[in-house]
Amino acid sequence: MNSMEELWSAVCAYVRTTGGITDSVFTLWIEPLFIDSFDGENVILGIESEFKFGIIEKKFNALLEDAFFSALGFPVHVEIRLIQKEAPQPEAPAAPAASALAADLVINNPHNSFENFVVGKSNNYAYAAAKKVAENPGTAYNPLFIYGKSGLGKTHLLKAIENYMRRKNPDAAILYVTSEYFTNDIIEHIRNGNTVAMRDKYRRADALLIDDIQFIAGKNSIEEEFFHTFNTLTEDGKQVVISSDNPPNEIPKLTERLKNRFEWGLMADIQPPDFEMRVAIIKSKADALHFAIPNDVAEFIAEQVSHNVRQLEGAVKKLQAICSLLKSAPTVDITRDAIKELMNTAQPVSVVRSRILDAVSAATGVSVENIVSDKRDKAIKDARQLAMYILREQTGLSLEEIGKSFGGKTHSTVKHSIETVADRMEKEKDFKTLTENLIKNLQEF
Fold first, then answer.
1. What is the mean pLDDT of residues 9-26?
2. Which of these, 192, 277, 282, 342, is most buried using a 10 Å CB contact count?
C-alpha cells in the first residue's frame, strides 16, 4: 500500500470513529472522495459528482481538515474540486515534488502502546496506573480517571490500554469511544427506536474506555445513560477508563453524581513535559518515522513547542514532509519555517492572557481595566465571564489559576462564569459566533 492510500485510509478511519456521522452518510458523501494531490501543506480532494461537490464542500470540509490533522499530526488546507478520475490530467511543474512526497513521506498511523509512550516525571504516575489497569482490568483501579491539558498523551494511554487488553484477551469486548461518538451513537439508537441494542452494546462490554468525557457535561439524557452504564459495568467488575482535560470537580455542568462516581477510583494527572522529556519525545517520534533529526534541531523544536506532546509530534511530521519536498536534511533554518505556526502557541500564559483581554475588550467595548476589576455592571460582568471562558479554552488553566488572573476571583465564581458562557452559547447563536470567532482569531494570531 503506498503512502497516499495509507493517508486516505487513516482519514476515513477518523471520520468514521470520531466524526459523528453514520455509516450511510459516510458511504454517500465521504467514500466517493479521493486524494488528487498533496504538497505538504495543501490537500486537493477530488469528487466526480457535481451534485455532491457543493454539499461536501459546505458540510464536511472542516471535518476533513480535522481528520487530516489527526492522520498527519500537522494542519493542512483541504480543498474539494470537481475532478473526473478517468480524465487525463495535465502535467504541472509541481508534480514531481508531490510525487516525491508520496514516495518518501511516511504516513505514520502508529499502533499506540505502552512501549512507544515516552515516560517522564510529568506522566509516570498516569502511565503506571494505566499499565496496571491493562494488566488487571476491573480489579486494580476502577474507574481510572486520567486528566490533563489537550495533547499530553491521554488518548495514547487509553489506546495503549485497549491494545494491551485486546492482545491479552482477543475475545474480550473492549470498547474505546470518544464522548462525541458515544453521544451520537446514543442519539442514533434512540432515533431508530433501538435502545435495547444500544444498552447491550455498552453495558455488556468487558471494558469501556471513553475519551474527553467533559463533552457530555450538560447533555442531560447522555449523562443519564452514561451514569447507568457506568454503574452496571463497575458493579459487574468491568473496567472503566475515562479521560478529561480537567479533574471531575472542575468540569463545568457535570452532574454531582457523575463527579462522585469518577472520584471513586484513581485519578491520575499528566503535566506538560520538561525540556529533556520534550527532546526525548521528538527523538522517539523521529525514530518511528525513520527520520534522522540532529540534536540542535530537536533542541530547537523542544524550546519552541513547550506545552503539547501532540504538537511536538506534529512538528516532527511537518518537518519530515518539508524535508521530503526539499530533498534536504533538517536544519534549524528549515525547521524554523516549518513550525512557525506552532511557535506562536509556546507563549507564556501571561502573554496569552493579555491577548485574550485585549481581544475581548475590542469585541465588547469594555476596557481591560474594567474586565479585571470588581465592577458588577452587566456589560463588564459579561465581558469578564467571556474572557474567563476563553482563557480556560486556550490554556486549560485550573479554575483557581484563572481566578488569580482576575484579581483573586474564587473557584466557584470562575466555574459559574464558564458555565454561564457555555449556556449562552447554546441559546444565543450570535454570541456563540462571536465567541468562536474570538477563539479562532486568537489561535491564528
1. 82
2. 282
H or E element that contains 147? strand 144-147
Radius of gyration over alpha carbons of the chain, in Å?
A: 23
Can you give the pLDDT at residue 230? Answer: 93
Q: Which residue, 306, 252, 247, is CA-closest to 416?
A: 252
The amino acid at 136: N
**Cell 502573554 appears where?**
351
Q: Is 382 helix (H, G, I), strand (E, B) or coil?
A: helix
Q: For the whole model, what pTM was predicted?
A: 0.60
The continuous run of DSSP H or E covering 42 comes out as: strand 42-47
Residue 165 backbone dihedrals phi, psi, to 5 degrees: -60, -40
The 10s digit of each residue's pLDDT in 64-91 is 888 888 777 677 888 888 887 654 444 4
Task: Give bridge partners of residue 209 from the DSSP assignment.
Answer: 176, 241
**Which amino acid appears at position 414 of this protein?**
V
Give the integer Cα–Cα distance in Å for 384 and 410: 14
Q: If you ran DSSP here, which 8-state letter would residue 93 be given?
A: T
* Residue 236: how many other CB atoms lie within 10 Å: 12
